[in-house]
Amino acid sequence: MPPNVLPIDLTALAGIFFGSLMVLIPIAGVTARFAMKPIVESLARLRESGAKTEAVDMLERRMALLEQEVQAISGMRDEVSRLVEELEFHRKLASPEAAKLTRE
Predict the structure, then answer these.
(1) Torsion angle of alpha carbons 71, 75, 78, 82, nearest 10°?
(2) 80 alpha carbon, distance to own chain's centre
(3) Is the pTM of this model over 0.85?
(4) How far apart are CA 21 and CA 24, in angstroms?
(5) How far apart are CA 24 and CA 42, in angstroms?
(6) Quick one: DSSP state of residue 4?
(7) 58, 52 in Cβ contact below 8 A?
(8) Is the separation of the CB atoms in 95 and 102 below 8 Å?
(9) Which run of H or E residues covers position 36?
(10) CA-to-CA distance for 101 and 94, rounded, in angstroms?
(11) pLDDT tens per residue across span 1-60
C-alpha cells in the first residue's frame, strides 16, 4: 500500500515564498550595507595612500635633483677658491716687491 501523499498547493507555496522575500530582501540589504561599509572605506583609503606614494616619489625625485645641484655648486666653489689662490700668486709675482726678491 503506497503512503498517502498530499497534493502541494503551488499558489500557497509561491505566496509564502514571495511573502518571506518581501521581509528578507530589505534585511539582507541593510546587513550587506553594514558589512560592506568597512571594506569600501578601506579600499578608499588604499587609493588615497596610492596617491600619497606618488607625491612622495615626486618629492624624492626633486630632493635628488637638489642634492645634485648642491654638489655641483660645492664643486664650483672649490674651483673658484683655487682660481683666487692662483690669481693671488700671479699678483704677487707681478708686484715690484717680488721683482726685488728675485734679483737678490
Answers:
(1) 180
(2) 41
(3) no
(4) 5
(5) 28
(6) P
(7) no
(8) no
(9) helix 10-94
(10) 12
(11) 667 777 888 899 999 999 999 999 999 999 999 999 999 999 888 888 776 778 888 899
CA distance 91 to 104: 19
Residue 1, helix vs strand vs coil? coil
For residues 59 and 38, give the distance between their C-alpha atoms in angstroms, rounded to a whole number. Answer: 31
Burial 52-87 (b: 16+ CB within 10 A, else e): eeeeeeeeeeeeeeeeeeeeeeeeeeeeeeeeeeee
**Per-residue cell: 84:** 683666487
Residue with cell 521581509: 23
Residue at grid coordinates 569600501: 40
**Any residues with CB less than 8 A from the CB of 92 and at least 6 apart, and which?**
98
CA triplet 12, 13, 17: central angle to 5 degrees? 115
